[in-house]
Amino acid sequence: MDVVFNILRQQDGGVPYAQQYTLEVSPRSTILDCLNRIKWEQDGTLAFRKNCRNTICGSCSMRINGRSALACKENVGQELDRLKAIAHNTPEAVSQPVFPSTSPTVEQAKGSAPEASHLPQITIAPMGNMPIIKDLIVDMQPFWDNLQAVEPYVSTQARNVPEREFLQSPEERDRLNQTGNCILCGACYSECNAREVDSSFVGPHALAKAYRMVADTRDGQTEERLELYNTDTQGVWGCTRCYYCNSVCPMDVAPMDQISSIKQELLSRKSKEESRQIRHRKVLVDLVKQGGWVDERKFGIQVVGNYLKDLQGLASLGPLGMRMLMRRKFPLSFEPSEGTETVRSLMEAVQRSESDL
Q1: How many domains does the chain have?
Q2: What is this structure's pTM?
Q3: Residue 94 pLDDT more than 70?
Q4: Cα separation of 239 and 255, whole Å?
């Protein structure tokens, strides 16, 4: 069948434009197969990365129809089916963003059919959150710098075992399997909303690797690492929990789950006095246990105002409180939800089960 490939192209610092290429392909052809054919048969100037062609190296990560994926893993038939699901708004299309067609120009490549509007189309673009070098090749230096920032290797001190090797039980080793599957393709980093708005956030890839170090019994710097990952929005508290990193990861590393695991380690060690981020989570849980849902009157005072101890924080709530009062949106009373006892017992059961792990 004939398929049109809309490829977003750009030189370093240049204006991006979409170029179309039409290929006769099999539904089982991978996107990387198609890109190779375009380069070999139609346009030798097209630039993209590739290496193993077997979902091992992570080199060929790019945005395919709106979400970052490995070109060697996705095939034409799967992509066209996914586009149909999105068009029909079916459940399997949920959480899959569609790449907007905002390119200023569209050029028809040599060898393309003159009338291709009726043909199925696949859009390919470079990864996000990284500068573009050329076409589908991005500069991944920020990606590597942020990975280095979390010190993703077992501490030298912990490896210094002169008498015998450092043995782990099968259970201890199993805790590292999921995060160890990361191939550093950059897909999660490309789709990270937090990274897009806050350049200080290290990214889901780095924090997934960070949890691998926290969970590794051979490491001797767990407490120091947790302090490093606890730094405001640069660390785990910068995550917006959008789940995009989980949805695009080709190796099921689930970076957001690993970030949550680091948060749980911090919450188990820290008191409400430590930081606003810690208070936010603990106060939320406490208020829900008390009333079944959050008492908004207490929430801001306890979290931002630190139980009336942070005068600057309390003062910052003043303008917001006045606007809420003027617009009649400030809750003057609080009524506990029905089934509060049930909610409380469920939360306590979950907390007990987590403490037993």
Answers
A1: 3
A2: 0.84
A3: no
A4: 10
